[in-house]
Write a structure and sequence with these properties.
Blueprint lengths: L5 H14 L10 H25 L6 H17 L4 H28 L11 H21 L1 H4 L4 H15 L4 H10 L6
Length: 185
């Protein structure tokens, strides 16, 4: 049996390396779910700024109930069990509140860090709704991964990767971890 020439072996290795996705690349499934949650967290910064500027309370149970009804309907239409949708969307609310409380505390302690421009909440909500729709799409697409025994480990790894891709600081990263708390199961 002959061995491939060293040049051929090097070429095969180089091609395999060149064609492989980067280690930090999104790969669908849980990676897309983590990215959708990170995008929603990023939009939540503007929610925090809008509420700070308007003096609006962070908690908004009426809005949460409406979003939960709407997204549960969207999720079940996409094949996601209603209970899963409620849990994951509820996690998004809690993650957003962690972020908002943290940012409000930061801004209270350090006025120089306060946002210079605060959007109107009515302008931010459509972006938040779009991020939530992407989350529901990713939730439906990741069903097999989310029920696998490796889900918790995969979700933690993808959350770290999404935090890196989205340049999240420790507060935003903590909110992202909370946003993915019910992803598996």
């Amino acid at each position: 049996m002959s061995r491939p020439a060293p040049a051929l072996a090097a070429l095969i290795t180089a091609l395999g390396t060149a064609l492989a996705p980067p280690a930090h690349a999104r790969t669908g499934g849980i990676a897309d779910l983590a990215d959708a949650a990170a995008e929603r967290i990023t939009v939540s910064r503007d929610v925090a700024a809008a509420k700070w500027a308007a003096g609006t309370p962070i908690d908004d149970p009426e809005r949460e109930a409406q979003v939960l009804r709407d997204t549960t309907a969207q999720a079940t239409a996409a094949g996601v069990p209603a209970g899963t949708a409620r849990a994951v969307v509820g996690d998004q609310f809690e993650a957003s509140k962690i972020l908002q409380r943290g940012l409000h505390a930061r801004w209270a302690a350090h006025p120089d860090l306060r946002p210079r421009h605060a959007p109107d909440l009515a302008e931010v909500r459509p972006r938040l709704d779009a991020a939530t729709r992407r989350l529901i799409t990713a939730l439906a697409a990741s069903a097999d991964e989310r029920t696998s025994p490796a889900c918790t480990r995969t979700t933690a790894r993808q959350a770290r990767a999404a935090a890196h891709r989205h340049h999240l600081d420790p507060l935003h990263t903590a909110a992202l971890r909370r946003a993915l708390a019910s992803a598996c199961g």
